[in-house]
Amino acid sequence: MIEHHKINGKDVWVEVIEQPAGRENPNTIPTEYFKARYYLSEPPEANAEWINDEEGQPQLFESPVAALTFATKKLMNTI
Question: What is the helix, strand, coil percentage profile of the chain, to 5?
């Protein structure tokens, strides 16, 4: 899912991507995580930047809403 936002007067596209949890027992919750990346130009022509955790890896969220909310709040302080 990709959503278009205006953040600090700039066009930004935020994409939320599903990532399977990859657990041995597929019934263990959560079964999937979500990560977010953003584009400063309309995708797919633009390069995407991941929303990373403190270790520099794409941050994992338990819901797409959490990923989108965190990404937009972080971008408000970044852009």
Answer: 20, 40, 40
Bond prior to 44 in cis (omega within 30° of 0)? yes
Residue closest to 38 by CA, chosen among 9, 17, 19: 17
Four-CA torsion 64, 70, 74, 79, nearest 10 degrees: 30
Is residue 30 reached through a cis peptide bond, with omega within 30 degrees of 0 on the bond before it?
yes
Q: What ranges in the chain are assigned the alpha helix state H?
A: 64-78
Quick: pLDDT tens for 44-76. 777 899 999 999 999 999 999 999 999 999 999
